[in-house]
Amino acid sequence: MQTEAQVADSALTNIRKRNTDEESGGGEEARKETTYGLGGAYMDMAGVNGHGNPHLQHANLPPAMRHFRNVAGKPAILALSAFSTGACFLGIVNVGLISSELLPTVAPPAFFYSGFCQIVAGILAFANNDNFTGVAASSYGAFYLAFGAYMVFWTQGFFGPISIIQLQHGLGAMLFGYIIFNTYIYIASFMLTLGLMIMFFFVEMSLILSMASLYGKISTVPGGVFSILLAATGWYNAATILFEDMFGRPILFNPLMTDIYMWLKGRRRTMSST
């Protein structure tokens, strides 16, 4: 009977052989499970030691993803779903599909779903050694908690004699901080999936345009449109992971950016040789 170390060595040898086949143009079937999603397939034989073996990762994964553990499920599904729901509601208000007077009704879902649930998802992501999801989910969970608090405090008069203009300027200052935060999160997403990269681009545009509207430079519609777009891509990313987990194979197209970079590199090599 093979020991755990022998099983790990054998699996690592097979993975190296598979990656060699991929570089030579073969092995497409062997690698398709890690091509279109961030689900459980990103850890080959993760159950060898019960917590995932960092030596058994797909070699094409970005370094940060090679050390994921699967001790707390896949909290990114919850984080993306909660984030997208809050963004969609705000987008609907900002584009004028419902009255802006209903904006305070965002407070309950902002507190409990988009806020609290995202923070829980972020903590679980840190347990999985998934720092990207942990930082992003916790930070945007805090964003929605703060936004909900703004709405409650303002409607209940806790801010004292403050005008709507002053409130908007305060929210604009908060958005400016999140623009800076989202900029480096967006850059980091270039090492994850295409869907996440697109989503965080929409987040960046939504934050910038929403801040401009809060300072009276433009209307709320452009920021609302990008909020709805980021919600749609966020739900798509969540569905990608959930479907892969449920069906055991990729269902929705969401390639790793590293795979796209390798494909582009191969295309350039092919074009230069012709």
UniProtKB/TrEMBL annotation:
Q: Which GO MF terms does the UniProt record name?
A: acetate transmembrane transporter activity
What coarse category fits the chief subcellular location reported for this protein?
membrane
Q: Where in the cell is it found?
A: Membrane
Q: How does it sit in the membrane?
A: Multi-pass membrane protein
Q: Does the keyword Transmembrane apply?
A: yes
Question: Where does the record place the region Disordered?
Answer: 1-32
UniProt keywords (A-Z) are: Membrane, Transmembrane, Transmembrane helix
Which residue ranges traverse the bilayer? Answer: 76-98, 110-127, 134-155, 175-202, 214-235
Show the GO cellular component annotation of the record: plasma membrane
Q: What family does this chain come from, according to its entry?
A: Belongs to the acetate uptake transporter (AceTr) (TC 2.A.96) family.
What is the protein named?
Acetate transporter
The root-end lineage is: Eukaryota, Rhodophyta, Bangiophyceae, Galdieriales, Galdieriaceae
